[in-house]
Amino acid sequence: MKAMLVAFLAIAVISVGADIALDYVGFSTQEITSGPSVRHG
Predict the structure, then answer these.
(1) Of 1, 17, 23, 30, whose CB has the highest number of CB atoms within 10 Å?
(2) What is the pLDDT confidence band of residue 14, given thresholds at 50, 70 and 90?
(3) If you ran DSSP here, which 8-state letter would residue 1 be given?
(4) Alpha-carbon span 22 to 31, nearest angstrom
């Protein structure tokens, strides 16, 4: 049971870290799906 809880915590940490890292690098959904003529607010 303890190993499963640690695994769930690891999944949460990895997903939040990946989201922040991808936004920082420029792979956010907003930047990927819009063309150059769209202004970002």
Answers:
(1) 23
(2) very high
(3) -
(4) 11
